[in-house]
Amino acid sequence: MHLKRFCRCWTLFYVSPHPISQCLFSRLILLFPVLGKQPLDDGLESWHGFYRSIRPTQMGLSLNIDMSSTTLIESLPVIDFVVKLLNRDVSSRPLSDADRVKINKALRGIKVEVTHRGNMRRKYCISGLSSQATRELMFCVDDRGTMKSVVEYFYETYSYVIKHTQWPCLQVGNTQRPNYLPLEVCKIVEGQRYSKRLNEKQITALLKVTCQGPNQRERAISYTVEFNPYADDKYAKEFGIKISPNMAHIEARVLPAPLLKYRDSGREKDCLPRVGQWNMMNKRVVNGGTVRSWICIRNIQDTVARDFCCELAKMCIKSGMDFNRDPIVPVVSANPQQLAQTIMDLCKVI
User: Fold this and answer.
1) pLDDT, tens digit (0-9, with 9 covering 90-100), for 69-98
2) How far apart are CA 122 and CA 277, in angstroms?
3) CB under 8 Å, gap of 24 or more: what pairs does 32-40 form?
4) DSSP structural state of residue 225
5) Residue 1: pLDDT band by 50, 70, 90 thresholds?
6) Taking the mean position of all CA atoms in its chain, how far away is CA 35?
7) Less packed terminus of the chain by CB within 10 Å, N or C?
8) Are 3 and 12 within 8 A, CB to CB?
9) pTM score of the predicted model
C-alpha cells in the first residue's frame, strides 16, 4: 500500500505493475480536506472523500463511486493535542501517572515534525514519553561520557529556551538510544490515519457528520465526478474508454408490503405495515419466545426503573411471550462508563 499526496488529496491505492490495471481495476479511497473535515474529539478529525472502483455489470464496465470518510489525527502542535486529549489546561497542575499513560498511548507511533529549526522540518516517529521531566533529562554527548541536559543542549545548539521544563519529552527514533524532543517544539504531521478504536463520543460525532440523505449523497457523488476529469484520463483514452458524467438509470419497482399474520387470540389478527412500520398494540405473536432470565441496570431513579421493568414484562406477556415478570436479581445501579464491567460482575454472581 502506498500513500501519495496530490494537491492536498490523500490517495490510498494498491500499485499494480500494469498501468491499465492500476487505473481501472484497483480500489481507491481519496480523501480531500476541501470536501469537508469535521473535528471529533480528543484531537481527532474526520476527513471526507470518496471511494471508486470499476465493476463488471450487465451494462458493461461501470464506475462505482460512493462517499467515504475516515478518522485522522489533527495536525496540531503536540501541546495543543495533549490539551484536547486531557480536556483541561495542562499548565494548571503536573501530569499524573494516568495522564502520562493516556498521552503515551495516544502518541505512540505518530509522526511529528520539529518547529524550532526554521524551514528544516525534520520528521520523527514517537516511540514513547520520557520517564523524567525535561529539566531533569541528561544524555551523553560524546564517547568520553560527557553528560549534558536537554535544556542546555537546546539553548546552546539552537538558541532555544524551553518554556515547559516540567513536562516530559517525546522519545523518538531508536528505543535503545532515544532522542529527546520537548513537546513544545513538535507538531503532528498532517494526514495520519487513526487506526485505534474510537470511543462512544467519537463514534456518535462521526455518524452525525457522515449520515446523508439520498439526495444529498447523489449531489456529493455528482460533484466528485465533476471534480475528477475522467474524460481526460490518458489511460482511458489509450484504450478507447469513455466515462459518462451522468449516473446510470435503472428501472425499479416498489414491492407492496406483506400482510402480517398474528395469533387469533389477539384483538387484531393481521396488520398491513405502512411506510415500513407497524404497531404491536392489541396483537399477539403466533410463536412467542421464552425469557426466563433477565436483568435491569439503571442510571435513573430506582422507582422509574422498577416501573419500566413492570411495564416491560406486561407488554411482553400481552404480546404472546412467555416472559418472567421479575428480573433474576434486583435492579442494579451503575455508571454508564462502567456498564461492561457491571455486566461481567453480575454474570459471575449469577
Assistant:
1) 888 899 999 999 999 888 887 776 778 888
2) 59
3) 32/8, 32/227, 33/8, 34/8, 35/220, 35/224, 36/209, 37/72, 38/205, 38/209, 39/74, 39/205, 40/71, 40/198, 40/202, 40/205, 40/206
4) H
5) very low
6) 18
7) N
8) yes
9) 0.61
